[in-house]
């Protein structure tokens, strides 16, 4: 029976585990024993370990044929020591046949709103994205040991449980249309499905834009969310005014514009997305979570 190791047992990984557990013996790395029961209920065998403590990872050597790596880098620093520690642990014995990593489309940097394929060079503009590039480079090193490494470059992940409704309720601004940036999205269920497909169908050393078919500017995305859940649309401000009103991290997301070409996931992974665009995903979220719906608000000029 195939054996799969899941590293980083967060939301997306937990959505993938039940499907994987029907087809393989699944082990999931958890940081605390308190998480064990929840992981067992999903069908995986918990292993307590911490990517920040290399000695705790000794049990991972040779444990699995395939690895799903969902753990993010640390919040600071120039690179990703967590991925380095994982690679070192896997190399203690024969490495897995395949590894899939959930990275970020932020590695491309600002692309001026053009369509971006996976062949575009990485030009990360933020320290956060530079750590992701470092992780990709570290993991690609496993290909020399015969491991098939595939990277899913994910954009903004959303689902009924992870919507930015609090931002709408605070009245955080977005950019006026002439200044606005293009943004990209993927539903958490679809990203989990892409992880499963890539474990079996991903090509060696291949990156994949794990994005849906939406072609949206950021302000339009928040307008759609507001209209779907009965919140007020966010105010539109000029670039200088918006930068002064937002946190540096939020502003960093509004400083980059690109549209992800997702044809490779359809052609090579043979993926069919459950939520092909944001409108479909938000409509399903509204059906799934009617408690989030507020009375429809009339918008001036809408």
Protein described:
This protein is an alpha/beta fold and 302 residues long. It has a domain at 3-163 and 185-209: NAD(P)-binding Rossmann-like Domain (Rossmann fold). 34% of the residues lie in helices and 18% in strands. It has helices spanning 11-21, 36-42, 81-90, 127-140, 165-170, 188-201, 218-229, 239-245, 248-253, 263-267, 278-288, and strands at residues 3-7, 25-30, 45-48, 66-69, 98-104, 115-116, 148-154, 156-158, 174-175, 182-183, 185-187, 206-209, 216-217, 236-237, 259-260. The protein has a seven-stranded parallel beta sheet, sandwiched between helices. A two-stranded parallel ribbon has the order 6-15.
Short description:
With 302 residues, this protein is an alpha/beta fold. 34% of the residues lie in helices and 18% in strands.
